[in-house]
Amino acid sequence: MTQKSKSAPSKNKGQGPEAEVSGPPIARLTRPFLHFMEKESSSGLLLLACAILALVVMNSGLAWWWESLWQTPVSFRLGDFELNKNVGLLINDGLMTLFFFVVGLEIKRELVIGELQHVKAAFLPAMAALGGMVAPALIYLGVLGDAEGQSGWGIPMATDIAFVVGFLALLGKRVPHGLKIFILSLAIVDDMGAVLVIALFYTAQVSTVALGVAALGLCLVLAANKLGVRSISVYIALGSIVWLACLKSGIHPTVAGVILGLMTPVSALIPEKALWTRLEKRIEAHKRDKRAAWNANELERLVTDARESISPLERLESSMHPWVAFFIMPVFALANAGVAIAGDVWQSPVALAITAGLVIGKPLGILVFSWVAVQTGSARLPQGVDWALMAGASCLAGVGFTMSLFIASLGLPAELLEAGKLGTLLGSLISACLGLGLLLWALKRQRLPSSPAHE
Fold first, then answer.
1. Could you tell me the CATH number of the domain that includes residue 59?
2. Average pLDDT over residues 267-292
3. Residue 37 within any structural domain of the chain
4. How many CA atoms lie within 13 A of 221 on its CB side?
5. What is the spatial distance between Cα 217 and Cα 227, in angstroms, rounded to a whole number?
6. Which residue range is the domain that position 364 belongs to?
7. What integer is the mean pLDDT of 7-15?
């Protein structure tokens, strides 16, 4: 049987599970990134359209209706438990928890089986992300000075993956593969930093009782994982308890989403080779007795085996990513990107500080920390990438949007929120233009020496 399994792929090249995992190691390592980019590049356009729509409506005669739509009260009561929110808060506290759950899944994947599992490969994007968080926060506080809004220092620290990947997709195959991997790895580490900032610095007064219920719920999730429970409904019920407990505890409920994502198993219950062996045995049995028909139980077992040969993390990420990319993030943009562009908002120190943090602080921090990592020999630039391309990618990382708007809603008082939104939108727009311009120039500069006109 072993000999037969080894020789099968050579006779049927490109078929069977062996073909799925064959190829160079780097191809297997980077396949999740490429699959991720295919979805994010198209969702970025939808996200942009929703942001523009929100801006247009908020600066039209329908602004009053648009604001009242997101302020519509929603309440839920079960016995003594009562939940009172408006539509906007349900989006930020509820739907965005699912967004952060997928962020947790992505972080877990990259830490266990992706680019971030190798310390040396992860060091450059990790250092770059660190610089891209520290410098924008310092510049924000420096530009703001003694003005109100100090708590918004975390706003310019974020990078919006959907927009960055969408902009990279506009440049097509000219962008080196190593640069795409770098910027995506940086964004993943950036997300980890943003989650820590939200958990540590944007948390209200904590209720120990509710926090204890959340911890108990997480322990039950862990126990269910260890016992091999595969029922999605069980995890939805336990996850809902954890979310509600976090909501009542004072810790922002999106943190629960990240933790649950990180707890999702990354290994399949049935290894791929075991699935292939089982399938071969069943096919061989039916070949020996051609009169035997596949019965319902056998087909059901095959379906179960096939499903369990895919890890829960991969199944959840694959099924939830379209919902997050094409529904949750666009709805969030509609509810949060609208800002009335009045004269006094433009003059706000908060708007200026956020813009400076994204446009100046983000690329400065990424480039300085990356340069230090390379000069000390701790890391090296990706293949085909020079410092001009790094500068373009660093500017592009200043597109904060989704995460920046989210942190603004947590960190700024109501009277400064409009200025926070304006600074985020303006800083993201300038960063996108600078990043795309620098990347186009750097890519053209790379091709010049090999062009016939210069030989």
1. 1.20.1530.10
2. 72
3. no
4. 26
5. 15
6. 44-92+116-202+339-448
7. 41
